[in-house]
Amino acid sequence: MPRPRLRDLNIPIGVLPTGKRNAITDVPDVLVGHTTLIYDEPRVARTGVTVILPRRGEIWRDNAPAGYHSFNGCGEMTGIHWIEESGVLSSPIAITSTHQVGLVRDALGKYAQQHGFTRLFALPVVAETFDGRLNDADAHHLTDEHVFQAIAAANDGPVAEGNVGGGTGMICHQFKGGIGTASRVAENKSGQWTVGALVQANYGRRHLLRVDGVPVGREIGADVVPLPSKPAGDGSIIVVIATDAPLIPSQCKRLAQRATVGLARVGGVGHNFSGDIFLAFSTGNHIPERTERLIDLRMMSHDEMDPLFEATAEAVEEAILNALCAAETMVGYQGYIVHALPLDKLTEVMRRYGRKI
């Protein structure tokens, strides 16, 4: 039985309405799939891969405006130099563990070639955070087939969160972390738009954790829930933002920058060894893979961007907290233990600080 999400505990974040699923899949034609590996023999696996397929996988041919932001750069996201140069996303987005970025990138390239999605070359986008405390990362568990399985499993329904996919072995604020997602519906004079966020949360220290402004990490300290069984580093977070608003690349980059606000609200500060890399794309404009004709683009006025900025901050904040709520206590490599955020104690602390739950 999955653990409840944050809103299931009657803890809302922000003021904007969520989409139907409160997930990145609320953005039309955005699919998410996972492959999760958990076993102990022949070597300990607590790892996996998560794949986001914009345009139901047709992103290879039907590119989307995109932009990225590196809040702190101790991490990797392949393909971002071409995104910065061209302003377009031209592949699915995969998130995995640090030691498996190369394999996942190559597998996406092979998938494109096998299915006729690319004519000459591909620069797939693959991001990572490090799972080598719970996972025997040097075993390099993933294969091409695991990536293909995640693509095949991708759908536009509710998104599994916590100990799944690339988030399987991740730690967040010294509780068990992983995959989380959320969405918001923003409205301006141009119309109504959906903004969705998906995170792989593997960052942060306990005392910095805040939930809707409440210092939960200080209230649920090491005397209440033990810290991970060995000292852990700063970790990282990957954020992917999708929207159906008609944005141009520079506006996507502006959206990606606002993920920093959501991260900061939860307690992320961009520590030295943290890889905090954010990518945003818009499905509201269509850019053919190759064409010799002029391309018509729509552009939202910069004056109308504020609701989208607010939606991004709220969605990222809640996505991180959903990852924490969904994740379960895990024992992994060499007996390393990371405890889940205790939801009964979370609600107790929130009530103590005056929140009506």
SSE layout:
Layout lengths: L30 E9 L5 E9 L8 E12 L6 H7 L1 E2 L3 E5 L3 H14 L10 E5 L14 H10 L17 E2 L2 E2 L1 E11 L2 E13 L12 H4 L15 E9 L5 H18 L8 E8 L4 E2 L17 H21 L3 E2 L5 E2 L4 H10 L5
Quick structural summary:
24% of the residues lie in helices and 26% in strands. The chain is an alpha+beta fold. The strands form four sheets. Strands 3, 4, 9, 10, 11, 12 and 13 form a seven-stranded mixed beta sheet that branches. Strands 1-2-5-6 form a four-stranded mixed beta sheet. A two-stranded antiparallel sheet has the order 7-8.
Strand portion, in percent?
25-35%
- Pattern of helices and strands: EEEHEEHEHEEEEHEHEEHEEH
CATH homologous group name: L-amino peptidase D-ALA esterase/amidase
What is the strand tally? 15
User: Which topology does CATH recognise?
Assistant: L-amino peptidase D-ALA esterase/amidase
Distance between the termini: 22 Å
Radius of gyration: 19 Å
> Class, according to the CATH hierarchy?
Alpha Beta
What helical percentage do the residues reach?
A: 10-25%
What is the CATH architecture assignment? 4-Layer Sandwich
- How is the biggest beta sheet arranged? 7 strands, mixed
